[in-house]
Amino acid sequence: MSGSSSSQPQQPPASQQQATPIPPASQPTKFDFENLRIEITGRCSRNHIPDTLIGLENPSIQLDFALESSINLKSSNVVLITGPPGSGKTTMVKKCVQKYEDKVIIIRLNGLIHSDDRYALETIIDALDLKAYTKTLKYQLTVSDMLILINLALKGMSDDELTSLVDVPLITSPVFFVMDHFELMVHSVSKQQLLYTLLNLTHSQTSNLTFIAISTDNTIQIKLEKRVKSRFTQALVRVVPIQNVSVLIDILTNTLILSKPNVKINESYRIQWNKGIEKLFSDSEVVNLLAKSLRMQNAIVYFLNVVADAVAKIDETYQHLTKDEFLKSLAKYDRQDFEEQYLVDAINIMELAILACLTNTARRLNKSTISFRELYDGEYKQFLNSDFRIPELTNRSSCLFAVELLIDRKILTREGTQVGEHTLMSIPFQTNMDGLLEIAAKRKDCPLALKRYINQWIE
What CA–CA distance (Å, rounded) separates 401 from 112? Predict the structure, then answer.
């Protein structure tokens, strides 16, 4: 009916309306603490690629320039990167190469694993997606055949009869060869012959290749043959360890700060956590003790291990990284008996498997000196073939080379003067190998099969 009033209830004046109460910030839960631990310990792992290369700005600019010219100018480049262990060489390369992953073919070689020419060439063939073409042949390819196949793919020409048997398309995409532990790939004349053959591909007008060699040996150029050495004068990038405590603090802050909101972590807790980190590294005692530690140990991985150890304690009771807890972890790693922890973090999975199998072999045979053949043909080969099933770790020459490296680093002791297959080795008397392996089994990158193998006698 016209003129009738609305049936909706009238609202009270704004002055009389009650303000909606702001709910208090929700308290962090055990899941917030767990997610924070996972996030930060992940940043401390050797496989993590940081968002910023702190302390590596100059060498990364040099590497970036070479990589960009390879892409934009379609030129071939050879870059040699040297620096002490733990200075960030490999991390820098991963970060710089990462931005081109969708534009290039990346072939990763490692001197610790690819000590055998045939295995190195098989890896290259796999990366170039040429394996299907090898299956069309009725015989196993020789090393020479594999080189011809790679030549066909990258240069598009060959005078060999293999050319008539396989129709390999020319690869036009840029190719990056990333060679870690480069010094182990050129330790003999025969190894340098393979490298020289691959480097020759850079002369082809149809190929666009970039070789990135990473080495801890600053004198590596002296050890190269003249014909190989001449190729490694194009770009030399030297990476130096952390120089001052302010750079170290920037790295640790970047590792610990949660700069972006994370759906898995309570927002108010994230803000409070960041404030705590800023307060921690503005404390003069913390800065002074970090500076003292830096004078003794300047490898980035060492301090990331300190962070991971401290963050592992975060839970409902210890919700923030306090000064006391951080300094406890720093002091623990500074102690002499925790040099073993750094040693474990510095060795790779293949070396861990060798040490574990050697320890068990010595225990089983009840003797301290073990030959390489006893190790490889017995415990090592049996374990890897039954449990691990990782082909590159079962390669005999790679295993022998890793043993020699463990001896050079004094993790193992050579008994007598025999070398090669006849090498005799023992575990140094002062080394608590069970303790080392127990720590190693807790590493995040330690495969489950190796953890079980180690724990079966330690427990």
Answer: 7
Q: How far apart are CA 136 and CA 149, in angstroms?
A: 12
Residue 63 tokens read as: 């590497």
Q: What pLDDT does residue 281 have?
A: 96
- Separation of CA 171 from chain center: 28
Q: Is the pLDDT of residue 9 over 80?
A: no
Judging by DSSP bridges, how do beta strands 413-414 and 424-426 pair with one another? antiparallel
- Let me know if 317 is exposed, middle or buried by CB neighbors in 10 A (0-12, 13-18, 19+): exposed
Cα–Cα distance for residue pair 392/21, rounded to 1 Å = 63
Sorted by where each starts, the structural domains of the chain and their CATH numbers stand as 30-48+243-334 (no CATH), 57-238 (3.40.50.300), 343-458 (1.10.10.10)
User: What contacts 24+ positions apart, CB below 8 Å, involve 398-405?
Assistant: 398/112, 398/113, 398/114, 398/115, 398/116, 398/119, 398/350, 399/350, 399/354, 400/372, 400/376, 401/112, 401/115, 401/184, 402/112, 402/350, 402/351, 402/354, 403/354, 403/372, 403/375, 405/112, 405/184, 405/351
Containing 107, the helix (H) or strand (E) segment is strand 105-110
Gap between the Cα atoms of 358 and 446, Å rounded: 17
Residue with tokens 């972890």: 329
What pLDDT digit, counting tens, does each position of 246-273 carry?
Answer: 999 999 999 999 988 776 888 889 999 9
Alpha-carbon distance of 208 to 219, in angstroms, equals 28
